[in-house]
Design a protein that fits this description.
The chain has about 140 residues and is of the alpha+beta class. It has helices at about 5-15, 25-40, 50-60, 65-70, 80-85, 125-135, and strands spanning about 80, 95, 95-100, 105-110. The two termini are about 20 Å apart.
């Protein structure tokens, strides 16, 4: 059974053509937590990453420097287009980077993090490309 807040999130997402996870905190959190568990999304705190980058470098068989350079901010699925900025809940940047949307895992994602499914080629910064990703990922939308 859906809660009133979930119905409101569905309506907001449909009216704005935004991915549902940008409006539904519970769904966003579920998708983010799944990505943390299954694909090592992190580091949890980008200011204090601990040995996170060493682990990523080992997983990818590369250097720590190369791992750090392969982050959400330059991933092919990281959407920071003007239309996606309108879907975000508020301020989208801080001293470490900015918030965008991950089309691979369907959650609001920070540019200074990464995960094991990172792929070169991003970010998405044009509305047309963002819409193409959205059309290919209809299940991430409310409508």
């Amino acid at each position: 059974m859906k809660t009133l807040r979930q119905y409101i999130s569905l309506i907001e997402a449909a009216e704005s053509s935004c991915p549902l996870a940008t409006k539904d905190i519970a769904l966003n959190t579920k998708n983010r937590d799944f990505t943390q568990d299954k694909y090592n999304y992190g580091p949890l705190n980008v200011s204090e990453p601990g040995d996170y980058w060493e682990g990523v470098a080992e997983e990818w068989d590369t250097t720590v420097e190369a791992a750090k350079a392969s982050n959400c901010g330059n991933c092919v699925a990281f959407d920071i287009s003007p239309r996606m900025d309108k879907c975000m809940p508020g301020v989208t940047s801080d001293q470490d980077g900015r918030l965008g949307y991950c089309w691979m895992h369907h959650f609001k994602c920070h540019s200074a993090r990464t995960c094991h499914t990172w792929a070169k080629g991003g970010p998405i910064d044009k509305d047309e490309v963002s819409m193409e990703w959205g059309e290919r990922n209809e299940m991430a939308y409310a409508n």
